[in-house]
Amino acid sequence: MDSLIFVLLLTLVSFRLYSIDHYSFPWFVAFLCESWFTLTWFTTISTKWTPAITTTHLPRLFLRVGEGELPRVDVFVTTADPVLEPPIITVNTVLSLLALDYPATSLACYVSDDACSPLTYYALLEATKFAKLWVPFCKKYHVQVRAPFRYFTHTNSHSHFPEWSKIKEEYEQLDRKIQNACQKLNPVPLVGEYAVFSKTERKNHQSIIKVIWENKEGLSDGVPHLIYISREKRPQHPHHHKAGAMNVLTRVSALMTNAPYILNVDCDMHVNNPKIVQHALCILMDSKGEKEVAFVQCPQRFYDTVKDDAYGNQLVALPMYIGGGFAGLQGIIYAGTNCFHRRKVIYGLSPDYDIQNVKKDFGFTNGTLSEKKTMHIFGTSKGFAESANQALEETTFTPNNNLFKSLDLGAAYEVASCSYEYSTTWGKQVGWLYGSTSEDVLTGLVMHTKGWRSEVCSPDPMAFMGCSPQDNLGQMAQHKRWSSGLFDIFLSKHCPIFGTLFGKLQFRECLAYVWITNWALRSVPEICYALLPAYCIITNSRFLPNKEPGIWIPTSVFVMYHVGTLSEHLISGLSARTWWNNQRMGRITTMTSCFSGFLDIVLKRLRICDTVFEITKKEQASSNDENAGRFTFNESPIFVPGTAILLIQLAALVTSWWRWQQCFVKNELAYAYGLGEVFCSAYLVLCYLPLLKGLFGEGKYGIPSSTIIKATLLAFLFVYVCNTFFIN
Ligand SMILES: O=c1ccn([C@@H]2O[C@H](COP(=O)(O)OP(=O)(O)O[C@H]3O[C@H](CO)[C@@H](O)[C@H](O)[C@H]3O)[C@@H](O)[C@H]2O)c(=O)[nH]1
Ligand SMILES: [Mn+2]
């Protein structure tokens, strides 16, 4: 079906090219836009063409390593705002990780708190007490969902185990304590353990690193190590948002546990499949995977989602087709969470090395890194250089390796300081890379450019589950951040095209990356195309062929595209309503969020202002909210272009209606002439129905009048320009 659409698009473009007699301004604009759509469609098809799925077989892992010899894994959790990311959610994520079905002696959990919040610290301390009950309980009864808040809302006491009620009570107590502390009923006093937080400001404080729990006895079914880190922040030092936090986690963990594998999750992504580490290791430790695979990405799925995906952000059908397609090429993109990395790849290693080359790469002399070179790459910490040496030398996995040192804090403060990265390669060649708010895709892309592959791991049950925005404001801010971050990558020196020309990025993987990184840019031709029908109606001109057989080409593209996407959704087990919501949100998001993202990058490149990482609000859905799925609005300029486009379509429809009446009076049939354009305009209004409702809504459900005024001015300007400069 996709190929058929492609052929039709090619036909449309050639038809335009050959109908010289039709040449006019709208015809030309349509030609440009449609050529762009055809190119985009080509990259989509190429991405989807050879999908792949990886299946993992746990028994085979244990043919390779004994159950007691499983390698160390360091787990990183990031949180950055106790209000937008309630500590109870972070705590549940951490509890689910501590309770992984994996030897506790080989796990260590590091939590980065970019808000430097005593609340988060308090919540983690309390959670550790509960973990001592929760972890053995989960392991004893093979609980599947290891985040207590999900577990207890979905099970009831009859069906369960003797301790069930007691543990539930304990959890409720923990929950209450944390909620009380959050609501300032019982604020955390900044004395004793918490005294370090007393002179801190969110963006101005020294590092705070605390070993909350150490598995001292080395019990493999105990509770794994838990370490709290709030890296140093100073107003004059850029902190690089999440990427910066990840790099601090990498360095601190290197000094403590230095595991060869790193799992990273966002604070809202709890474990849904307790054996996920073993599944990922099946891929990472596979004899081929060991040499080729840089990272293993598990899908992002969400719980308590808005019915029928009203805001089009559940990412179910898209990852299935596009993600599966990526997987069949050089590998899936890195999505920032639910991902297993190799430490040495994070340190910048290329895949086809032999150890001699590495030594050259990194300036080894006589078996160890030359001091000057190490300092240049990794910074001045001696302890870190030593641990990096070990991590890099470890060419293939050897069980019983003893990279573990101790949870000693001494050296850790040095590597968590905000000036540590100056004149090193952190964020440039080593670690999570800086320069884009989609640091994840950038970091993964550079690994692919080095020639690494990546794999998707999606065992049943789903590996992780998280929160997704519960309103359109969150969804739009998120899409804006992604589209701008991705476009930033396209314009940077890490552009996928260079990756293919000068690096080892495979050609079709490059096309797939080009497709994904151009999300923001796609808003420009889409907006032009959306303005075309209105332009034509207002100026009484045409951009669609108006005679047979020409008119059949765009009509069949339209029909085939909708049938195609609908069937994809139905095959993925989604409702037709979900399909329509995604379809509609696709149009709205591109012309609002992605266009804002595009403007942001233009401004950034002109050095007028920089992009920021706006954190997505995490909340648990209230189950019987009758307004779920309804659009809310605020003063954000993000709504201006969308509202303007809607008003322009409405103006066009009114114009055509008025003209139709005139014809009717004169008994002419001429009104049938521009039917195609009217249909397009009406279709857009249908897509924009949520905004149309917003024009008349009240309170947060109404578009603020300042936005309406700005949009009306833009719409008037458009109509004026059409009438003055282009009317025939
Ligand atoms: O300065 C910051 C900003 C964010 N975060 C953390 O980054 C994570 C992701 O932030 P979130 O607001 O949840 O963004 P999402 O849009 O949900 O994130 C997706 O997109 C991001 C890139 O834009 C990736 O980093 C994420 O992993 C991916 O889940 C959260 O754990 C935050 O706590 C920090 O640690 N420090
Ligand atoms: Mn998130």
TrEMBL record:
Species name: Psophocarpus tetragonolobus (Winged bean)
Q: Which keywords does this chain's UniProt record carry?
A: Cell wall biogenesis/degradation, Glycosyltransferase, Membrane, Transferase, Transmembrane, Transmembrane helix
Query: Where, by residue number, does the polypeptide cross the bilayer?
Result: 638-658, 670-691, 703-727
Set out the biological process GO terms recorded for this chain's protein: cell wall organization; cellulose biosynthetic process
- Predominant location category: membrane
Membrane topology summary = Multi-pass membrane protein
Name this protein carries in UniProt: Cellulose synthase-like protein H1
InterPro entries noted in UniProt: Cellulose_synth, Nucleotide-diphossugar_trans
Q: List positions binding Mn(2+).
A: K242, D266
Q: Where is the active site?
A: D114, D440
Q: Which SUPFAM superfamilies match?
A: Nucleotide-diphospho-sugar transferases (SSF53448)
